[in-house]
Design a protein that fits this description.
It is a single chain. The chain is α+β, with helices and mostly antiparallel strands and about 350 residues long. The chain folds into two domains: about 5-125, 3-Layer(aba) Sandwich (Creatine Amidinohydrolase, Chain A, domain 1), CATH 3.40.350.10; about 130-345, Creatinase/methionine aminopeptidase superfamily (Creatine Amidinohydrolase), CATH 3.90.230. The chain has helices spanning about 5-10, 25-30, 55-60, 75-90, 100-110, 120-125, 130-150, 160-175, 235-255, 265-275; strands at about 20, 40-45, 45-50, 65-70, 90-95, 115-120, 180, 185-190, 210-215, 215-220, 220-225, 225-230, 290, 295-300, 315, 320-325, 325-330, 335-340, 340-345. A six-stranded mixed beta sheet has the order 4-3-2-1-5-6, with helices on both faces. Strands 7-10-11 form a three-stranded antiparallel beta sheet. Strands 8-9-12 form a three-stranded antiparallel beta sheet, with helices on one face. Helix 9 (about 235-255) runs antiparallel to helix 10. The longest helix is centred in the middle third of the chain and has 21 residues, at about 130-150. The chain is elongated.
Length: about 350
């Protein structure tokens, strides 16, 4: 079953006649086609995708399970969608409340002759469960990232800057077949590594530093995400203890991950290891998040996530310990919930590496 058809089947559960999709991530999810402009309409009687002259030829080649129509200045996409709704008598229309700006919502109200209902949950629920094709693309993205990591490790040495390492990672992923980055890479070293989302700087790597690299790329529209922390030259006893604690916390969370458990319980398994080691105040983020056509999706593995996780959900597994002004460690894999447990699709080694 195609994604347009699956979305159409889900309309009844929300008492909807149609769904209007304007956001780029959801358009990509439904169509498998990437464009910076477009709109989709899903109904029980058929679906449509609208885009302008820049993309119309490519869209007609790529999209086979929806009618593809050209939008123009004279007949923009929302006008054509409104005409379809009126012609077919479709009155209850869902929209993506979690993506739209106020201006875009006002445009919907002005253009569409229908009662608008928040319906972001429909596609969010579908996106939470990856099919085999989606997983295949994510694995390919992961392999590209891992190959880049293996090569960039040869470049990490005293004097090399964080910015240079980040640039090298991006170049290698693009060279390896990535469409683009999943996000701007995080490369932080020494005291900077205590900042979970630090930005690469011109700081040179020094002997005795941890270097944390959080990065990923996109392949066929789907993201990878991984983090590895390596040491340069030597480590102190505490650095090694923190690293092994984070690795044990990740293993505990992964062991707890399976369909039907909550994200909160997965987080708790990893957090318990960190707390028992005496670092409970230094792990401030969730154990993991979902990813797919976006690098941050739902569901998540954090204390607030109390709903059972479905089979086929994809989660990052990324506990960390961050000692302000000193150093930090994060280790991140991506797992897929299946059967009685989960599959780790990240193959890069995780044991402490001293370069």
């Amino acid at each position: 079953m195609g994604k347009f058809e699956a979305a159409a089947k889900g309309l009844k559960s929300l008492d909807l006649d149609a769904l209007v999709v304007l956001s780029e991530p959801n358009r990509l999810y439904l169509t498998g086609f990437h464009s910076t402009a477009g709109a989709a309409l899903v109904t029980g009687e058929g679906s449509w995708f609208f885009t302008d002259s820049r993309y119309i030829e490519a869209a007609r080649r790529a999209i086979t399970d929806a009618a593809v129509e050209e939008s123009t200045r004279e007949r923009p996409a929302l006008q054509q969608i409104g005409e379809i709704l009126e012609r077919r008598g479709l009155k209850r229309v869902g929209y993506e409340e979690t993506y739209l700006t106020v201006s875009e919502f006002e445009g919907l109200k002005k253009r569409l002759p229908a009662a608008l209902t928040p319906a972001a949950a429909l596609l969010a629920g579908m996106r939470a469960v990856k099919d085999s094709w989606e997983l295949e693309q994510m694995v390919k993205a992961q392999r590209i990232a891992e190959k880049a990591l293996a090569e960039v490790l040869n470049d990490i040495r005293p004097g090399r800057t964080e910015r240079e390492i980040a640039a090298r990672l991006q170049y290698l992923m693009l060279l390896g077949g990535a469409e683009r980055m999943s996000f701007e890479p995080i490369v932080v070293s020494g005291a900077n590594s205590s900042m979970p989302h630090g930005v690469p700087t011109d700081k040179p790597v020094a002997a005795g530093d941890f270097v944390t690299m959080d990065f990923g790329c996109v392949y066929n529209g789907y993201c990878s995400d991984m983090t590895r922390t390596v040491a340069v030259g030597h480590v102190t006893e505490e650095m090694e203890r923190v690293y092994r604690t984070v690795l044990a916390a990740q293993a505990a969370g992964i062991a707890a991950a399976r369909p039907g458990v909550t994200g909160a319980s997965i987080h708790a398994a990893g957090d318990r290891v960190i707390s028992e080691a005496g670092y409970g105040g230094y792990f401030g983020h969730g154990f993991g998040h979902s990813l797919g056509v976006e690098v941050h999706e739902s569901p998540n593995a954090a204390p607030s996530d109390t709903k059972p996780l479905p089979e086929g959900a994809v989660l990052s597994a990324e506990p960390g310990i961050y000692l302000p002004g000193r150093f930090g460690v994060r280790i991140e894999d991506v797992i897929v919930l299946k059967g009685e447990g989960c599959e780790d699709i990240t193959l890069a080694p995780k044991e402490l590496l001293i370069l």
